[in-house]
Design a protein that fits this description.
Blueprint (H helix, E strand, L loop, with lengths): L2 E2 H8 L2 E3 L5 E2 L1 E2 L9 E4 L3 H4 L9 E4 L9 E4 L3 H12 L8 E2 L4 E2 L4 E2 L4 E2 L4 E2 L4 E2 L4 E2 L4 E2 L4 E2 L4 E2 L4 E2 L4 E2 L4 E2 L4 E4 L4 E4 L2 E4 L5 E4 L4 E2 L4 E3 L5 E4 L4 E2 L4 E2 L4 E2 L4 E2 L4 E2 L4 E2 L4 E2 L4 E2 L4 E2 L4 E2 L4 E2 L8 E3 L4 E2 H10 L3 H20 L2
Parallel strand pairs: 4-5, 5-6, 6-7, 8-11, 9-12, 10-13, 11-14, 12-15, 13-16, 14-17, 15-18, 16-19, 17-20, 18-21, 19-24, 20-25, 21-26, 24-27, 26-29, 27-30, 28-31, 29-32, 30-33, 31-34, 32-35, 33-36, 34-37, 35-38, 37-39
Antiparallel strand pairs: 1-3, 2-7, 22-23, 39-40
InterPro entries: Hexapep (IPR001451), Hexapep_transf_CS (IPR018357), LpxD (IPR007691), Trimer_LpxA-like_sf (IPR011004), UDP_GlcNAc_AcTrfase_non-rep (IPR020573)
Family: Belongs to the transferase hexapeptide repeat family. LpxD subfamily.
EC number: 2.3.1.191
């Protein structure tokens, strides 16, 4: 596929500076691009390095006249670049294709054409919306409901009666709707707590590889619209995760916690159970949150504290051995003074 710079600018609603007739064949990384490819320079550090990229076309956030490249000025170069990637590599339409090696149960409802790969198991009373792509080895248990355009990569499991909205993507190895970790002490042993609820995942959610999202004890574990999770994330029973929230790799959220909208939980953050994380809050990497947080807080460390306070504490830690020696010397001097030596 080939397009001119002007055609790409028209698609993006951008403005061309330079040669609009230049031909573009593909998007490319900034460092490895060729003359007929397009890259983006989203911030000042890349704008200063325009001469270093081999690309002949660059998406930029502001007009400039110090480059011999064709520039396309757009409001958000990163998002514009994603649109260019989608344009040059469009997804094909789903045509109804069910592998003869797939196992399809009784009373399975198709809302339109779907693709089901070999080794997939679609149990009884499952509903698949139009345009679903079910990769090899997927298991969709009885009574689950999938919306339109859902993609389940290889070896995903969707537990019984769970609900997935439209355009949900679940990457390989993830389990949606496993039992929660619930056991009640009974003498010297533990009795398993039944988990009779479901997992509900709303529209436009993307779940990374090897996630585990537990079904509710009763009611639902709820992943709301636009949530994106990285690989190796665990969400426990009855958790609610708000819209457009990001869960980075190895985040763990304990049971019955609610996470607000537009929250970022950085890598390896651990969230205790039965607390609330307010909207627009950021939890730093490897932090441990043991109590509720309000809206717009930025916290780090264990236990989690305001990020600026954590930075001060971290800067003091290397000095602690010398401070201890100083305090010990002062204690000895005070002791000698008090004893009259």
């Amino acid at each position: 596929m080939k397009r001119t710079v002007q055609e790409i600018a028209d698609m993006l609603g951008g403005t061309v500076i330079g040669d609009g007739s230049r031909v573009v064949t593909a998007p490319a990384p900034f460092e490895d691009a060729k003359e007929d490819q397009v890259v983006f320079a989203g911030d000042a550090s890349y704008l200063k390095r325009l001469s270093e990229t081999g690309a002949g076309t660059v998406l930029v956030p502001e007009a400039r006249d110090d480059s011999d490249k064709a520039l396309i000025v757009v409001d958000n170069p990163r998002v514009a670049f994603i649109k260019v990637m989608e344009f040059f590599a469009p997804k094909g339409d789903v045509t109804h294709k069910v592998s003869p090696r797939a196992c399809i149960g009784e009373q399975v409802t198709f809302g339109g054409p779907v693709e089901i790969g070999p080794g997939a198991v679609i149990c009884d009373n499952v509903t698949l919306g139009a345009g679903c792509r079910i990769f090899p080895g997927v298991v969709v248990e009885e009574g689950a409901r999938l919306g339109d355009g859902v993609t389940l990569k290889s070896n995903v499991t969707i537990g019984h009666d769970c609900i997935l909205g439209n355009r949900v993507m679940v990457h390989s190895g993830s389990v949606i709707g496993s039992d929660g970790y619930g056991f009640a002490p009974e003498g010297t042993s533990y009795r398993k707590i039944p988990h009779t609820g479901i997992v509900q995942i709303d529209d436009d959610v993307e779940i990374g590889a090897l996630n585990a999202i537990d079904r509710a004890t009763s009611g639902r574990t709820w992943i709301k619209r636009g949530v994106k999770t990285d690989n190796l994330v665990h969400v426990a029973h009855n958790v609610e995760v708000g819209e457009d929230t990001l869960l980075v790799a190895q985040v763990g959220i304990a049971g019955s916690t609610t996470v607000g909208n537009h929250v970022i939980l950085a890598g390896k953050a651990g969230i205790s159970g039965h607390i609330h994380i307010g909207d627009n809050t950021i939890v730093g990497p490897d932090a441990g949150v043991v109590k509720s947080l309000g809206e717009g807080e930025v916290v780090s460390g264990t236990p989690a504290m305001p990020h600026k306070l954590w930075l001060r504490l971290i800067s003091l830690m290397p000095k602690l051995p010398e401070l201890k020696r100083t305090v010990s010397r002062l204690e000895k001097r005070v002791s000698r003074l008090e004893s009259g030596e």
